[in-house]
Amino acid sequence: MRSMLWITALAVLGACTNSPVPVVADNNLPPSLELLASGLPWVTLQNGSSGRDVVSAQYLLRARGQNINADGQFGNGTKTAVQNFQSANALSVTGIINADTWEKLIVTVQNGSSGDAVKAVQDQLVNDFGYTLSIDGAFGNGTKNAVQNFQRSRDSTDDGIVVLSTWSALITNKAAVKLSDATARSRLTTAGIPVSSSGNCINRNNSTCTALEQIRAASIRAAISLKSASGCSLTVTGGTEVGHATTTFSHYNGYKLDFALSTCLNNYIQNGFTYIGLRAGDSAPLYQNTRGDIYAKEGNHWDVLFY
Fold first, then answer.
1. 195 DSSP β-pair partners
2. What is the DSSP-derived secondary structure letter of residue 50?
């Protein structure tokens, strides 16, 4: 069960992305102390807490040298480990994990990393977000791909490196980011990708329109990446409007976009992606890229599922 979010009440020195966390000295504290000023939200954990966030904290405490089990139960042993960690890192010795303790506890991990901090990431991805991974503490390509997918869905830099901002999104169970129609169109326009509608409209409740309301940020990012990687001109012809198949990974739920056919795009997909057979129901040829996205060649467009 998730506890309330505790957001640092300190002045934010700047937006924290994937850069090292900025620190600021507080003149009211001894010179040896510095306060982190990321402004990121964190879950507060204490004696009696339980769940996946506790598992993550316990794995991170293990990575920091504390000898405890990662069982998801915040008992006296975990409290003692937290107090030991806080004492060793010049933090208030409360036995409570709040923002300042989280931000000292976090370990940056990436492809090639190993150990309990990696297990913490894998456990969150598997048990809180449904990814299929082994919780083995080895950060390989599978874990990197899952992290990148998670980062894209949260509209952050998808470099596969788990830094403070990605940790915060994992720990606080940050929801996948969806965009307004205006924001999505603005991003596509900036990338040189026009949006076409047979009805010349954007009403999501009209099947002749092409709407982008509530499109996943990850889908827009993937469309822009597709244009960049292929070198092809792209035109979006279908978005989140009604009239498409209603499944979890659907147009309406923001997972799919349609693109007009072109020789350039056809060649890029058919020659560069893996053919995986015909789609049940309409026999549309299916192609899959290395990221797992699925491209279906329908009558006059590509129907693309972005994960």
1. 236
2. B
Q: Name the packing angle between helices 52-63 and 116-127 (round to 10°).
A: 170
CB under 8 Å to 266, separation ≥6 — which residues? 297
Q: How far apart are CA 86 and CA 106, in angstroms?
A: 13
pLDDT band at 39 (very low <50, low <70, confident <90, very high): confident
User: What is the per-residue pLDDT for 245?
Assistant: 86
Parse the chain into domains and list their residue ranges. 5-171, 178-305
Answer yes or no: are the C-beta atoms of 193 and 234 closer than 8 Å.
yes
- How far is 236 from 185, CA to CA, in rounded Å? 10
- Is the pLDDT assigned to residue 95 strictly greater than 70? yes
Structural contact between residues 165 and 18, judged by C-beta atoms closer than 8 angstroms: yes
pLDDT digits (tens, 9 = 90+) for 276-295: 999 998 999 999 998 889 99
Q: Per CATH, the architecture of 5-171 is what?
A: Orthogonal Bundle (1.10)
Q: Tokens 């915040």 belong to which residue?
A: 74
Indicate the helix (H) or strand (E) that contains 84: helix 76-88
Q: Hey, is 276 helix, strand or coil?
A: strand
* Cα–Cα dist 14/104, whole Å: 19
> 23-25 and 41-43 as β-strands: parallel, antiparallel, unpaired?
unpaired
Residue 279 DSSP SS3: coil
CB–CB of 295/256 below 8 Å? no
CA dihedral sign, ordered 163, 91, 60, 10: negative
Residue 21 is encoded by which pair of tokens?
A: 């966390």
